[in-house]
Amino acid sequence: MIKAFVFTFFIFSVSVSSDLKKVRLHFTQMSKQEASVTSIKELTLTSKEIPATLKRAYYAAAEMASAQYKISPVAKVNVFNSGKKILEATILSDTSNLEIRYIRYTIQENAPAFLGYKKNIQADKLFLIKNLNNVKSTDPELFSSVYAYLLTYGKLSQQEKAFIED
User: Fold this and answer.
1) pLDDT, tens only, 42-71
2) I need a labelling partner for 77 at 20 to 30 A (CA). Which of 11, 108, 139, 146 fits?
3) Residue by residue, what is the 3-state secondary structure of the chain?
4) Is the pLDDT confidence value at 14 over 90?
5) Predicted local confidence at residue 25, as pLDDT
């Protein structure tokens, strides 16, 4: 049984491209390092390995994060809103994609309130909780990231914690 798990883990881990792994890593750092924002944008524009919807979603996230590195308040809002439009259009084109919903959830959780980008937090959180186990075997890295984020920052009820811990 353990051999089967290790084999399955290895097979599915290999299916995630190295470019997507890099983008995911930079995504966790983009609020702290402007270089991560730049790296995400470059990878999403040049990679042939990342699915198109994920490229658009991560590009949009990087665009939104780049707002914090602008000097002008007007530029900050404009850049953020530009990325928001791209992300929302991407979600509309693929509403069942857990990773894209996770991207929006983390951005909305961390966006300043004055930007007014908080309306999908609860719906996205519930979507992530309900669908998280669907990626457990197919993308363990994504599962671990979403799981850890929800437990750490998701303000989960006891019922929600119990659901994702099963």
Assistant:
1) 999 999 999 999 999 999 999 999 999 999
2) 146
3) CHHHHHHHHHHHHHCCCHHHHHHHHHHHHCCCCHHHHHHHHHHHHHCCCCCHHHHHHHHHHHHHHHHHHCCCHHHHHHHHHHHHHHHHHHHHHCCCCHHHHHHHHHHHHHCCHHHCCCCCHHHHHHHHHHHHHHHCCCCHHHHHHHHHHHHHHCCCCHHHHHHHHC
4) no
5) 97
